[in-house]
Amino acid sequence: MFLYKNVIDSPLGDISADARAKKPQKLPVVLSQEEVKTLLIRLQGIHLIIAALLYGSGLRLMECLRLRVKDIDFHYHCLHVHDGKGAKDRIVTLPVQLHQTISSHLHRTQMLHTADLEKALGSVYLPTALTRKYPRAAKEWKWQYVFPASKISTDPRSGEIRRHHIDASAFQKAIRRAVIASNITKPASAHTLRHSFATHALQNGMDIRTVQQQLGHSSVETTEIYTHVLKRGGHMVRSPLEDIFPSPDDLANQFK
Predict the structure, then answer these.
(1) Residue 226 catalytic?
(2) DSSP element (H, E) containing 118
(3) Pair 71, 146: CB distance under 8 Å
(4) Among 42, 61, 176, 215, which is least packed, fewest CB within 10 Å?
(5) Which residues, other chains included, contact 209 with Cβ-Cβ below 8 Å and sequence gap of 6+?
């Protein structure tokens, strides 16, 4: 279009409806529940909690790492996700199985924050508007990250010395090591846990609209890709080979 308009001087007009290429749809990688369990067992400490939240709540990795203490609601068993993809807020489920683990983790994190305050540190990054509205909020416990970094660092934008949340690459490396140790041959990553959450939720009978809201998808069509995973996974299609060999042992015996 640029060539015809600016070089040949003969505009083609609006051809977007006919000429725009469609991005090929790729099915997401999904782990079985047994594979997820094996993967989680291979993780430890803070990495185990993050992985359990990605699978148990369907969070994106950065949504999980940016959680603040105030975003956790044990009473209503939920997490408040602020400024997620598309600058949208939403509420997701917090598995009961994680309550005790996260409570213990927050206790240790609060002790770390108290130690930082005693060193005249303890500040955390806040968006500019919040910093102006609540000047002292950056040092309050409720605004601290749930998963703080192990070391204090200098904010490259403001030059302030702060404790940021842990780096995403550190968790991704831990996942890769766990996948290898678990002998999982699928190309699994941190985001695979989110895909597995959606697929298993639908498999367990959760309404697709509810899954859409949990994942934060703008359109239900985006969520429907997980129904394709279920249909193509073998649960919806009966192979004609089953008519010839009704029992798996019948065919296995042919190779002995």
Answers:
(1) yes
(2) helix 99-118
(3) yes
(4) 176
(5) 220
Q: What is the 3-state secondary structure (H, E, C) of 140-185?
A: CHHHCECCECCCCEECCCCCCEECCECCHHHHHHHHHHHHHHCCCC
Residue 191 falls in the annotated catalytic set: yes
Q: What is the pLDDT of residue 20?
A: 64
Task: Give the whole-angstrom CA distance, residue 47 versus residue 33.
Answer: 19
| Residue whose tokens read 């006919």 | 18
Among residues 47, 165, 194, 195, the one annotated as catalytic is 194
Active site residue 60: yes
10-residue stretch averages of pLDDT, the chain, 256 residues long: 85 70 79 95 95 95 96 96 86 94 96 94 86 88 95 85 93 96 95 95 91 91 84 65 76 72
The residue type found at 219 is S
Q: How many whole angstroms from its chain centre is CA 3?
A: 42
Say what the pTM is.
0.84
Burial class of residue 154 in the structure, from the number of CB atoms within 10 Å of its CB (0-12 exposed, 13-18 middle, 19+ buried) = exposed
Residue whose structure tokens are 């991704």:
172
